[in-house]
Automatic annotation (TrEMBL):
Species in which this protein is naturally found: Kozakia baliensis
Pfam families in UniProt: PRISE
Protein name: NAD-dependent dehydratase
Gene3D superfamilies noted in UniProt: NAD(P)-binding Rossmann-like Domain
UniProt domain PRISE-like Rossmann-fold: residue ranges: 56-354
InterPro entries per UniProt: NAD(P)-bd_dom_sf (IPR036291), PRISE-like_Rossmann-fold (IPR055222)
Amino acid sequence: MSRKALIVGATGIVGQNLANRLLADGWAIYGLARRTVTLPRGVLPIAADVLDVEGLKAALAHLEPSHVFFCTWSRRATEHENCIVNSAMLRNVFEVLPNPGVLDHAALVTGLKHYLGPFEAYGTSAAPQTPFRESMPRLDVENFYYAQEDALFEAAERDGFSWSIHRPHTIVGYAIGNVMNIGSTLAVYATICRETGRPFVFPGSEVQWNGLTDVTDARQLARQIVWASTSAAGRNEAFNIVNGDVFRWKWLWPQLASWFGIEAAVYPRRPSSLELQMSGDAKLWREISRKYGLQEERLDVLASAWHTDADLSRLVECVTDMSKSRIAGFADYQDTPHSFFDLFERLRAERFIP
């Protein structure tokens, strides 16, 4: 195995799906996370905190990866703090590697907040023109994605490896315990609506309900990361990555409802915060879990309503251009309804939803 991967954030929604892709391709994989219990089978665990420099140095002392995949972030109270902490996390990894000269490529996963701005800046400036293209300049606001990119560029220049940056939209995929998981959040919400008779109402803005948008299947993201990391055309480039289709939530929402055997409610033409709707449902989910013998009784492990609200309450359309990577040779496509259906089927098969 000449290709040896270090996945930073290997238990997250991106890291787990990337690990599965690399395992299928025969890579040797080391998965770095603070808690490694949920690593995919076949990934070699490295338990460390990337903000603890000495602990990280000890954990990576004998590791010489050919590729580093940075798939994690840490949320702080302000974007200024996000910039400091998240750039330090990335910088620490590259500074403690014992032999950076053997590193061939490093990939960083960020997202569409590169174009939209951070959560705290939403709605404070003019709406960006869509579709989002990689050639767009940075916004004139603090953004931890920019700080991460700069740390990556600095390390690549110093140590001589190539890099790629990947900008997904809302990620749909399997990862229990992930704090940004719209798929499992909507699965739990639909299950609660079915069990209680509550209306399955779209919680987001009228713009999102009616406007065009897209999402990124975690498997599609993994495919692009591997392509860029092993292809000359992917080196030293930033790429958008979405499924390749566009949709309107008013078209998709009834299909999600149908999968769960319920009716989609009439849209009330205003946001109905999912975080507020589910704020008192922890006890109810425990009861549902025990009724059906599910694996996880803790609602907050399966559902991240705050992040789903942030995604679905935007007041701008979100359409992402994929031309750059397609021209360069990445031609994979993923059907969006099946991104959700595949996830729901796995959650049901593994007894996370009834």
